[in-house]
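Support request, please re-run this one:
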Amino acid sequence: MIAKHVPMRSLGKSDFAGLMNYVTDVQNKDHRLGQVQVTNCDAVSVRDAITEILATQHTNTRAKGDKTYHLIVSFRAGEQPDVDTLRAVEERISTGLGYREHQRVSAVHNDTDNLHIHIAINKIHPTRHTMHEPYYPHLALADLCTALEREYGLEPDNHQPHQREAASRAADMERHAGVESLVGWIKRECLEEIKAAQSWGELHQVMRDNGLEMTPRGNGLVIRADDGTMVKPSTVSRELSKPALEKRLGAFEASPEQGERKQAKREYQKKPVRSRADTTELYARYKDEQKNLTAARGEALAAAKRRKDRAVADAKQKAATRRAAIKLVGGGRVSKKLLYSQASATLRAELDGIHKDYTREREQLYEGHQRRQWADWLKQEATQGNSEALAALRAREAAQGLKGNTLAAQGKAKPGHAPVIDSITKKGVIIYRAGRSAVRDDGDRLQVSTGADRAGVVEALRLAAERYGDRITVNGTTEFKAQAIRAAVDGRLAITFADPALEKRRQALLQDNFSATRKPGVPGVGKAPPPVARAGRLRSLAQAETLQIEAVAVTQQRPASAPTPAPSELARRKVKLQAELSAKKENANQRKGRGR
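Re-run finished. Output below.
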């Protein structure tokens, strides 16, 4: 578990209402938004809580800093704590930062590879109206996360950063955007060569060989790439700071001017991070789309405006025709005035509808033509059914296999219905809708969310058989394995479990269900009559093939205290019953003869 404060660089961008709109937005996904909790507010709904918190923030007019504290608590991939654990974690972390009495709203998000909580806290105290700023929050958050992991049995994580803030931001950019940063490229390609330089001349030569240039800037140094991207050397490594270099190489010496620059052995380019798949063609298509994005959006907006103008002109033309018809129609002044009023109202309604449709279309065009990072573009393409984009997401080094309660399958796949895709993560994990729960698919195995109902587990088993095979491997807790067995039996799924113990238990449950539904010795009810009864005539009692009367079966219900009949009595009853049966048979034959 990692807790991280998200600072707002620009005070003008700090907006509690805007933050809550993002945090509580479902984004057309069924399983994005989880539990939403409002704390220390008189309001019950989120909308009313936003109004109350904004009113509290406005009571402090002297504070110049950001009045909103945005915190993200992220769990390890595969971890899905229950609702009580999430609520306790949110409460403990907020209290540990000194915000126990402050107003806050938290929301759980499930649409990424790591379940996480967004906590929006009002820094202004609701009664004292003073602003609280935590002291060294990263240290307090690290200690709180360590204690919570031990207390709730969560998977331990690294809470102590080993990189400077700028280097950490570069790593985050690579992870989220999927494109190499200059800091990461230097570390992977030429950092050791730079460190091995024994003079300023050798250092500048190494820089030129890699398409870089080190120049003074202010009181320090910067490394500039050919495309204009700059980074501080100390961000790459503390050994490359200006004091460290001057201590090792002497006073700084600028790179000598050269008449003709040689071709560099390698140079930095903004391209996808290392991957197990070849993304050259996909990335070229992405660059072309981004280059022509503005022009394409302009053309689409212009076409939408032309359609709107034509619709407005048509509506006005119809209104003019309607008014001309009213003018020609005979009638009194009052009736014509009423007709003109109705025509004007109809025109206004049509124009309002046209403008609303145009506004909605503009929003959709801006949404569809907005600039996206490489990873976000791959997500969009994968959602639209591009298998190459999905493979590129799953081939990233950041992608890892699903953990926890998972299902894997082998054997013969049984294609069936196409499941509904809720969303796709940046690691290529597809989230399917399964009843009230969700099923995650990374291409190798399926993961069922904690607390999933039986319908969700049945859907996951069916999906595993349809996509990967009917021989299912179940991994996870004992409770999940038992739930999978019961779901397979109740759903009557044609699957087998790879684990012999699970398969044996499934077969036993199937046999118990079969024995409970059919009594031994009683044949099942057929859907069609037997051949002898298909001529449209009745059969006599003696012709009934399923009638079997045995002595042991002819017993009467009697109280428990009644004495058991003697053997001679049973014999007499048997003889009497056989006589009655023979008489009935003879009477039936006589009636049959008379009918002829």
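Confidence is low (pLDDT under 50) at residues 545-562. The two ends are 92 Å apart (CA to CA).
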